[in-house]
């Protein structure tokens, strides 16, 4: 999702030299992010990243554990946020696989975080133990919590810099239920994409109210480990890269497509075998590690699959680190230039913040998802308000001549 967050827009207007410094790619020399250059990892436990209301109406403090390479002195580091498995009913941030993957990736140089999120949903009673509407709502609550965690780190990067995270390089990942959440954070960007029976407005919208409002929850990539989504069409042209690992014999979360949960309306989902081909079809960078004849989350109990999954994530992420301003902001054909857009999705207007040399850009076209020009605009200042006007809900691309398109959305 090509979104840039508000505080960077303010920095750009107030101090262009600071914003341009953000364009530098991550330093991957010396084997960093590829081999375990750090012998030890420091874990900060029980970090509060927000608070949200559970399905029973009670308040829950949202906690996470943060893993950092011990002795690391790099000032801007990529961050990977992981969410555990458990069908939105079980599991904790301290599950063995979360500890394992967060530790292994932190030894490469990443900052990693394992989050706890709101669990639970109404049960319909034996033998039908899941309610499909409740399950879908639990998935949305989990997504909201992960978005709150992203905003927590953006807030920290803009203020105290306690964790020295480079906010252009925040990646969402998860296993099983956690992967549902990560996929939604990365690709569910319009309220209209959420089934009406979920009641998204009553749940707090896409962002939720978990904490740190005013910061973007956009991520630079998605790590989908045995997950699925409501529709492969969530993935659209211009979205962030996707890495999937999935067993082809998964009987819990289908590799291709199928039903999860019970009750009506049915919760029909699409797994990695449908999501990655969709990503390829719309031009989204992606990797699919197909675990032949493997069942559900085999990497959590089998060391060989765990190694394969780790290597797949490592090899997928490292090339992305060499991209200046990875996919969160459109990169200009002119070095040091980029265009920022916030908020997106928006209700009434999107603010476009142009580079200091904005006058060189000329006229822009606003395209709908079919590529049809629906509006033209000629900037008269560095900051431009793109009013929604007659534009319907959906995704649009703002395209200046010679520049990569900037993806925006209206709710």
Automatic annotation (TrEMBL):
Domain BD-FAE-like span(s) in chain numbering: 64-229
Key word Signal present: yes
Signal peptide positions on this chain: 1-21
Entry keyword annotation includes Cytoplasm: no
Residues in coiled coil: none
Record keywords, A-Z: Hydrolase, Signal
SUPFAM superfamilies named in the record: alpha/beta-Hydrolases
GO molecular-function terms, A-Z: hydrolase activity
Pfam family, one: BD-FAE
PANTHER family xref list: AB HYDROLASE SUPERFAMILY PROTEIN C4A8.06C
Protein name from the UniProt record: Carboxylesterase family protein
Species this protein is from: Hymenobacter ginkgonis
């Amino acid at each position: 999702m090509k979104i840039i967050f508000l505080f960077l827009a303010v920095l750009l207007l107030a101090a262009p030299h600071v914003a341009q410094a953000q364009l530098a790619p991550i330093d991957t020399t010396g084997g960093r992010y590829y081999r375990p250059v750090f012998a030890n990892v420091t874990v900060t436990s029980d970090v509060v990243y927000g608070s949200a209301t559970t399905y029973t109406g009670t308040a829950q403090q949202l906690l996470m554990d943060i893993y950092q390479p011990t002795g690391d002195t790099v000032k801007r580091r990529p961050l990977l946020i992981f969410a555990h498995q458990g069908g939105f009913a079980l599991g904790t941030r301290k599950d063995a696989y979360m500890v394992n993957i967060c530790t292994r990736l932190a030894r490469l140089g990443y900052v990693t975080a394992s989050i706890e999120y709101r669990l639970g949903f109404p049960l319909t009673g034996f033998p039908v133990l899941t309610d499909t509407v409740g399950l879908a709502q639990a998935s949305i609550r989990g997504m909201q919590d992960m978005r709150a965690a992203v905003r927590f780190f953006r807030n920290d990067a803009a203020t105290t810099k306690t964790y020295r995270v480079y906010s252009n390089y925040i990646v969402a990942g998860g296993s099983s239920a956690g992967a549902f959440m990560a996929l939604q954070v990365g690709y569910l960007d319009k309220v209209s994409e959420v089934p009406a029976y979920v009641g998204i407005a009553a749940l707090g919208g896409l962002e939720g109210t978990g904490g740190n409002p005013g910061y973007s929850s956009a991520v630079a990539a998605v790590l989908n480990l045995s997950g699925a989504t409501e529709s492969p069409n969530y993935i659209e042209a211009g979205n962030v890269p996707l890495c999937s690992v999935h067993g082809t014999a998964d009987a819990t979360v289908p590799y291709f497509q199928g039903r999860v949960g019970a009750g009506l309306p049915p919760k029909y989902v699409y797994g990695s075998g449908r999501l990655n081909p969709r990503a390829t079809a719309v031009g989204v960078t992606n990797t699919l590690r197909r675990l032949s004849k493997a069942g559900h989350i085999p990497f959590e109990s089998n060391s060989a699959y765990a190694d394969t999954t780790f290597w797949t994530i490592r090899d997928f992420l490292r090339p992305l680190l060499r991209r200046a301003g990875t996919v969160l902001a459109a990169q200009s054909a002119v070095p040091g230039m980029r265009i920022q857009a916030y908020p997106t999705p928006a209700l009434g207007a999107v603010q476009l913040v142009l580079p200091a040399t904005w006058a060189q850009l000329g006229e822009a076209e606003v395209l709908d998802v079919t590529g049809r020009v629906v509006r033209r605009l000629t900037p008269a200042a560095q900051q431009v308000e793109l009013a929604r006007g007659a534009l319907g809900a959906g995704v649009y691309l703002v395209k200046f001549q010679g520049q990569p398109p900037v993806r925006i959305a209206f709710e």
